[in-house]
Design brief:
elongated, three-stranded antiparallel sheet, single chain, mainly alpha, 1 helix
């Protein structure tokens, strides 16, 4: 009986901490992806003097855009190997020019909806330090 009580107490203390870890890992991965994509966008801008347009999207980092304005100095091997999906299986959103800077790069979080709190919160290049 004492063993069952001790195991129950340990479960109450440990299980909530373990359950929360996958959500924290997804948020950390999204922040890492956004940072990597932001670096690739900055390299694109260094070569071409402007960021890709919203219509060109993040695909302009992998393949030369065929939509105007065509980049004059697009890197031969691109700026990133592939465009990742966010940790919840959706595409990252890209808008240029953005409301928060020259571009907005973001994910809607776990719920896939604008706004939210915790793991449902939007994560963007303007929210990551």
């Amino acid at each position: 009986m004492v063993v069952v009580v001790i195991l129950s107490i340990l479960a109450v203390v440990i299980v909530p901490r373990v359950i929360d870890r996958p959500d924290q890992a997804r948020v950390a991965r999204a922040e890492s992806d956004i940072a990597a994509l932001s670096s690739a966008l900055d390299l694109y801008r260094l070569d071409n003097h402007t960021y890709p347009t919203t219509e060109q999207g993040l695909d302009a980092l992998v393949e030369p855009p065929s939509i105007e304005p065509e980049p004059p100095n697009w890197a031969e091997n691109g700026y990133i190997d592939r465009i990742p999906q966010d940790p919840w299986g959706r595409d990252y959103q890209y808008v240029s020019p953005g409301q928060h800077g020259p571009y907005d790069l973001y994910t809607y979080g776990a719920d896939g909806e604008p706004g939210g709190e915790g793991v449902d919160a939007m994560l963007g290049n303007w929210t990551i330090e």
